[in-house]
Amino acid sequence: MVNTTVDNLRSRNEFWKYFFNICQIPHPSGHEAALRQYLQQSAEKCGLSCRVDAAGNLAIDRLAAVGCENYPAAILQAHLDMVPQKAPGVEFDFLHDSIVPVVEGDWVTTGGKTTLGADDGMGVALAMELLTDNSLQCGPLRAVFTVSEETGLGGAEDIDRDFLKADVLLNLDSDQPFTIGCAGGSRLSGAARLPQRAVSDQYCGVKFHLTGMHGGHSGVDIHLPVGSACCVINEFLRQLPAVEIAAVQAGTLHNAIAREAEVTAAIPAGLWENMSAVLDGFNAKLNEIYLPSPGKKITLSCEKLVSPPPQVLTSEAQVQLLELWSNLPHGVLETADNATVTSCNLAVVEGSAAGEWKFILLGRSLYDEKRQAMMNDAVCKLQNAGFTAVIDSEYTSWRPCWDSPLLEFACRIYKELTNSEAQKTVIHGGLEPGLFCGMNPRLQMLSFAPLTQSVHSPQEKLNIPDVEKSRVLLRTLLERLNEMPAAQSR
After folding, report:
1. What does the DSSP assignment read for 286-342?
2. How many CB atoms lie within 10 A of CB 443?
3. How far, in Å, CA of 393 to CA of 337, rounded?
4. Which of 46, 168, 264, 461 is the most exposed place for a label (fewest CB within 10 A)?
5. Checking phi first, is residue 26 left (phi over 0); if not, alpha (psi -120 to 50) or beta?
């Protein structure tokens, strides 16, 4: 794409106007109110009715066009919140600063500085464009915008069931036409206060920094050779002789693969002289095994502190901690037909200078019973090591319906538009239809959206040509929904 700028795109159509306006409004999980207010005001200016439920989810209703009153009632569904991730050294406040998009060829990105929020600003923009288009000829249409999706599908879990009264739901939060199922997920938190002691004599204080790892979505990217900073830093600490650990910070979000880690520790003064050689060997191995962040190298560096940390873990506590850390699950645990079935993301490892330690894991599986068994095993490991362990959030899988009339209809329309067969996929990420199917069993659902890459990381990007394809597909599906086999009108 030649000489395309953000301003060019903004003037191209209403999708891009809404998308870039969404970028200007801070909306990380738990802070969606300003974005919700903007969308509500935009809808009400167009004469649309709005409701907000107790959880903070927004429903916007549009009446059927003349002559389309007996079409099946449809819901366009997306989530309001975004994952806040920034690259090392980038100064950015996700509660107050606007995302700054840039155009790079066929992609909208942030230049690798922060997450873009295409997940799921693209879905919100797709829905708003159609809701406010007076030329759209379709049946009763509702947009449902949920909150707190990225922190455990909280908005979907607590949604007003009346919001889901319809015949068809199109979830606009996956980039495959069409996604018809997803994994369920469980978030596990473990915490303990570990005993400490004074640093050994003749030890110096050091701080290790692990940077340059690729990161990514903890579901759809978990099979890639990106590695986890949580696991890599554990491997290094287990190899380092006589290290005394004071504090650790690895990973930040349960649904993102950890990209960075920092460890405050003490080492024998003599080891400091050889540290450069130790790190060179370890870094060479890391860059052979793992895919780094674009344009960077994976680097574990070390700085010498002015003085040792005042307290470190006792020897026994450190041995037990590193053993537990190594035994907690991470990565792909089961596959079938080259697809991930069950996985776990060791997302966060935190240890404070005061001896407070925490682990956060996110387990996923297409089979709820396998996910529950995996997480129960992790709970036992944490408890046996003296940690409290709580599964504080979970959601069910969305089991695919391969013979759905909606799927048959959507695949036919897709082939007419593209002269190619639609893919029918089940993804390893979590999607809100997994919860909705139990709330309205008669609701037929599928998911699609424009192509994105590297979501939940500063490399996140949105494909411009695919936006145009998705806009045409979504509009056509709505305007021809009366052709759906065995359609049940409202």
Report:
1. HHHHSPBSTT---EEEEEE-SS--S-EE-HHHHHHHHHHHHHS--EEEEEETTEEEE
2. 18
3. 29
4. 46
5. beta
CB 231 within 8 A of CB 330: yes
Give strand pairing partners of 196: 313
- Please state, in angstroms and rounded to a whole number, the distance separating the CA atoms of residues 104 and 95: 26
Close Cβ partners of 49 (under 8 Å, ≥ 6 residues apart): 60, 61
Pair type for strands 461-463 and 312-313: unpaired
DSSP structure class, residue 137: -
Neighbours of 160 (CB within 10 A): 16
pLDDT reported for residue 4: 80
pLDDT at 346 over 50: yes
Instruction: Fold for 186-395, please state it.
Output: Alpha-Beta Plaits (3.30.70)
Please state, rounded to an integer, the average pLDDT across all residues of the chain. Answer: 96
Sign of CA dihedral 52, 65, 179, 490: positive
Which is the CATH superfamily of the domain at 6-182+397-483?
A: Zn peptidases (3.40.630.10)
* 112-126: burial string, b at 16+ Cβ within 10 Å, e else: bbbbbbbbbbbbbbb
d(CA 141, CA 123): 15
Q: Where are the domains of the chain?
A: 6-182+397-483, 186-395
How would you class 314 by CB atoms within 10 Å of its CB: exposed for 0-12, middle for 13-18, buried for 19 or more? middle
User: What are the beta bridge partners of residue 141?
Assistant: 62, 74
| Residue 175: predicted pLDDT | 82
- Cα–Cα distance, 488 to 490 (Å, whole number): 7
Contacts of 107 (CB under 8 A, 6+ apart): 453, 461, 462, 463, 464
**Dihedral over alpha carbons 136, 139, 144, 145 (to 10 degrees):** -10
Residue 412 is predicted with a pLDDT of: 98
What whole-number distance in Å separates Cα of residue 293 and Cα of residue 214? 4
pTM value? Answer: 0.86
DSSP 8-state code for residue 484: S
Name which of 351, 372, 354 is nearest 363 in CA terms. Answer: 372
CA distance 443 to 74: 10
In 17-104, the DSSP E strands lie at 49-52, 58-62, 74-79, 102-104
User: Tell me, what's the pLDDT at 3?
Assistant: 57
- Tokens for 134, please give them: 């007076």
Of 67, 85, 22, the C-alpha closest to 457 is 85
* Residues 6 or more apart whose Cβ sits within 8 Å of residue 80: 27, 32, 35, 36, 39, 58, 120, 124, 145, 146, 147, 149, 155
pLDDT at 241: 83
Q: What is the DSSP string of 336-387?
A: ETTEEEEEEEEEEEEE-TTSEEEEEEEEEESSHHHHHHHHHHHHHHHHHTT-
**Position 338 confidence tier, pLDDT thresholds 50, 70, 90:** confident
CA dihedral sign of residues 237, 250, 323, 370: negative
